[in-house]
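Reopening this ticket.

The earlier resolution said the output was attached, but the attachment link was broken on my side. Pasting everything inline this time so it's all in one place.
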Amino acid sequence: MKKILWAGLAVGLLTLGMAGMADAGLIENGSFEKVQQETQQAAGTWNIYKSIPGWTTVSGGGIEIQNNVAGAAYDGSSHVELDSSSNSAMQQVIDTVLGQSYVLTFAYSPRPGISSESNIIDVLWNNVSLTNGTGITATGGTTTLWELMNYTVIGTGSDTLTFLANGRSDSYGGYIDAVSLTPVPEPATMLLFGAGLIGLSSVIRRKRN
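Inline output:
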């Protein structure tokens, strides 16, 4: 009985540890909902900000927050359009662990009804393009067409994440939502987790026999 309890506890702790790593989002205001909470920006409206919680404008006209204006958000009710009054860029500085691998995830959608030439956005990690400078783009449909993008990046201790509009500067551009950054589990952690599961399975089989 004690073996089962200890094995179960070990696997439980490992599972909690894995879940904690998966939920350890390091991005502040990744879904841009804090803007609505702080400014009470109403549904069906948009506004341009020089800065919002977690994010700062580094070029262009500012950060445009839409609240269900031209298509629905991916997460919650707010998302960013990167081409506000002109092509713009926003960034966030993130505390990371030196040498740690992370998965950067975000949702992208072309603005509905807008050509691919206007919907280009790029994403940079420490000023290096993760798309080799080509950007991400698509032709807008009748509503938002969200797609999750994933990139693996390496932490340096303090890293800068930048999103920028890189298409036709005409105040219509690609959308960003649900930005997250999570650490990749180390191989040793995965092996330990697997060993815990095998050990628990073995104890349960012996108990049943």
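Reporter confirms the inline version is readable. The first strand starts at residue 45 and ends at 49. Residues 5 and 205 are 14 Å apart (CA to CA).
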